[in-house]
Structures
1.
Amino acid sequence: MFRLTHTSAAVAARVGLGARSPTPERSYSDSGIRVPQLATFRLPEIKNEPTRDYVPGSAEQEQLMAAVEELGSKTHHIPLVINGKEVRTGDVQKQLNPGNKAQVLCTYENAGPKEVDAAIEGALAAKSKWEAMPIYDRQAIFLRAADLLATKYRYKIMAASMLGQGKNIWQAEIDAATEAVDFLRFNVKYSAEIYAQQPQLNAPGIWNRVEYRPLEGFVYAVSPFNFTAIGVNLAAAPALMGNTVLWKPSNSAVLSNYVAYDIMREAGVPDGVMQFVPGDAA
């Protein structure tokens, strides 16, 4: 018989001293299906995302320039996203192209107290199911986001950073593409290393275990204008570790941050786990 120490009361109550530990389960909140987790998974090898050269006439340069032209051909509208639903407040602001201030790159909804309160309530409601999801499944979501950013949406997020934040091709490549991808992938690697840090010694009849719990409440991610990758990381890193996040992008980087936010939703981040709320940082 093992005596559980250094573990949560919830786990101890579920396992029961002297009782057989049940199979860890993965729950799907939408369907109610519960699937046993029957293995300890090995992560794929994590490597730095290679940079591309964008030499004149190259395929990558042509694809990037096409993305810049397409993204800059119209004014985009960015909503709030709260609990997976687009929200319009009537308070519409503008993000200008800093290299051509006559160009309105996008308009966006500005969150007020009512919308922020709703986002907080939704994040708190989503937290219990999200933090209960096994780390392997959360890791898979963010590895998928990294792959989407590195391939399908690479040129789109670079174009949004070039037009919206005044970056040249190389600056956008090392920020919005490679650094953002590296944040997503290496965070997964580091999360596995953190979870693996466990007590080396146990007294007879005792199994010491350490849990790495999410923070109480929610995380408020206020991202800057100058690095798209930092916005990605400020939202994704705490979410990976089981936290829910309110993401308040810089008013000068709403478009690129929204592209990144959409990528993470497509990768499988559930509704309510990340709330997108442009507005006053205070």
2.
Amino acid sequence: MGRLLLLLGVAKQDGRHVESIDRLAYYEFFADNPWVVVADDADSANADRDSLRIAGFSQTQLSYASTGHRFASRRERIRGDLSQLVAYGLVRLDGVRFTVTDDGEHLAANMQSSYADAYRVSASIVLRRLVRLSNRRLEAQVEEWIGHSWLLIDLLDDVRGADLPPETAIDESDRR
């Protein structure tokens, strides 16, 4: 929950908007794993890479090996975390946009640790790079970065029509 609050605080400070729960999940995950976003060799990413190194992010973290699975499990938790932040009055939903309240902004500003400072740097970079992308372009970019997986189901998606085995394929002993 702390990362969500930090991210929304940075978004407000930078004048950026978080337009959906799916986008919030992407922004939060990639702010914690920024090398996925800035790992390309483009010269335009040099300043971002330098900022991440100075903030303490390492490109050689073991966790980058399982990015897709970690994203899927984290994405499942975000609704619960977000609902708690709303219940505590730290975040509000304005239409489809998530914003940090004054109390939430104050709490996020008082989070003092090297991790919180590094996360703020990373969140600012990730938001600047991803907020401007259309939903379609963002989805395509995420798929390129972490791969396509059946685990990556939209949080609010309807799963009717999912491939399920026919009922006759279920063994009678399994029904008891």
